[in-house]
Design brief:
Blueprint lengths: L9 E3 L5 H16 L5 H12 L5 E3 L8 E4 L6 E4 L8 E3 L1 H6 L5
Antiparallel strand pairs: 1-3, 2-3, 4-5
Helix pairs in contact: 1-2
The chain binds zinc ion (ZN) (2 copies).
Length: 103
């Protein structure tokens, strides 16, 4: 038995195991292309994997930030909305504050 990670608004991609990083990347790719029925299923799986609730995103900042966060959290920056995809590109609140990017 593993204990469940406590719910928290942010997590760190680099704290995931290599195996979980692979799972995370695969789930994000599937979520990006998922239809409206499947999308929440992937988000639930991503929450289970990372402990991040809501719209799970990895920081898309060019500084290679490893932050995982809820896209609807306060301060989160939108670099680009996904055109024809679900996820778009977001910056974590720290990056959006320190060096905001636009597409
Ligand atoms: Zn960031
Ligand atoms: Zn950054």
């Amino acid at each position: 038995m593993t204990t469940l990670a406590p719910a928290r608004p942010e997590a760190d991609y680099n704290h995931l195991t290599a195996e979980d990083q692979d799972r995370f990347d695969a789930l994000m790719e599937q979520a990006d292309n998922a239809g409206p029925h499947d999308y929440p299923v992937y988000m639930t799986a991503l929450t289970a994997l990372t402990g991040v609730t809501g719209e799970v995103r990895k920081c898309a900042c060019s500084c290679w930030c490893p932050a995982l966060f809820d896209a609807n959290a306060p301060g989160v920056g939108v670099i680009e909305y996904g055109e024809g995809f679900n996820l778009g590109r977001h910056q974590c609140s720290w990056c959006a504050d320190q060096h905001p990017e636009t597409a």
